[in-house]
Amino acid sequence: xxIFDQILPAVAEVLExxxxxxxxxxxxxxxxxxxxxxxxxxxxxxxxxxxxxxSLQALYQVLAGRICPHAYEAEVSVLYDVDLETxxxxxxxxxxxxxxxxxxxxxxxxxGNWTQIAPExxxxxxxxxxxxxxxxxxxxxxxxxxxxxxQLGKRVLVLDLDLESPGLSSSLLPxxxxxxYGITDWLVEDLVDNADSVLDGMxxxxxxxxxxxxxxxxxxxxxxxxxxxxxxxxxxxxxSDDGSRETWSARLQRLLxxxxxxxxxxxxxxxxxxxxxxxxxACVTDLGANLVLxxxxxxxxxxxxxxxxxxxxxxxxxAPQIRERLRHVAAMIPEVDRIAYLAGLRERAxxxxxxxxxxxxxxxxxxxxxxxxxxxxxxxxxxxxxEGWNFDEADEGAPHYPWVVHWHRSFAGLQSLQGxxxxxxxxxxxxxxxxxxxxxxxxxxx
Length: 446
Hints:
A hairpin with a 1-residue loop joins strand 16 and strand 17. The chain has two domains: 103 residues, no CATH class; 275 residues, Rossmann fold, CATH 3.40.50.300. An eight-stranded mixed β-sheet has the order 8-9-7-12-6-13-14-18, with helices on both faces. It has a five-stranded mixed β-sheet with strand order 3-2-1-5-4. The protein is 37% helix and 20% strand. By secondary structure, the chain is of the alpha/beta class.
């Protein structure tokens, strides 16, 4: 019996044997439904061509014999549609590896598929703080970064999008300054065209800033109310009277744009949910992030998770759209054996990045006349240019090379962080978060 992971290799093998036959089709969709069952979707002109139709149905029967129980009955195994866009609508699509007009479309129970990469925003830079595993000091680092940028005169907009584990706002706002509403309230009210009633009451200013300003938008308001029940509804798409459908991440993007108009920030810091879920997908891929900070511990669990995500980007053909925005953050580096710890972490990060996101560039031939590295592009010139996106392990400008955050007991808990930030000085912040803060400052429009 074939299991899910074996479906696409079987599809590719069956189609490869009939590649010449496929040239008669403008396109072909390999459609995997919510249960993981596969059928073809072909152009509707195939349905009226007896030869093509019977040939395609026969091809499907060969495939069905390979992928059982993930196949449909013969009479519903092939569907027809007017064009490729209609056939793919509502699914996560990518080209089948090795084919230029065969598309794989997955129908998912959730809309966070991680392969729809929004272009970088052109306004205030958006920085996403993300981690595969929780407990890495991600939210604390964001709060410290917001504090420092505000001390430098920047207007900082902070969003707590760790919706299933909220709490960032408590590190930047005392209880008396918590706003009435939060992001979950807006997303629920937006479904019934009532979002304007909460928009004015969901932004609070922190009393920690000096020359700049910190605008905090929490996951929930001062009184969470029926938070669990609201949380169960925020993922809903908004369906208009004309039948048009706006995904939840598109609604979130619309909220962010309105908040930016109201606060006019110099930078937006977004605290993402940990893990590979719906909220994290929206934060990392859908909001036009200019910089995605990947917090990591040294350990196989963390890097196995990042490898799964990076491999998904590579297979989906979207790695070039996202990889230049990524930066590894070495989280909470221990006080002892720091050099050895960092060396091991950097080595593991390099292996994962190079295996999945970096281009495989062969060593230069003996006749190579010149070599240069432009950003992440390694270029050998020998008559023609051979170019790729690749880095050495020790390249400090590489995305795998960590920005270090040191562990410090005074920053170990969010609940006490608000009071801690009120009395802290620049030297202490820089000693713990300096490389991270400098990296974020590097993308600002000064």
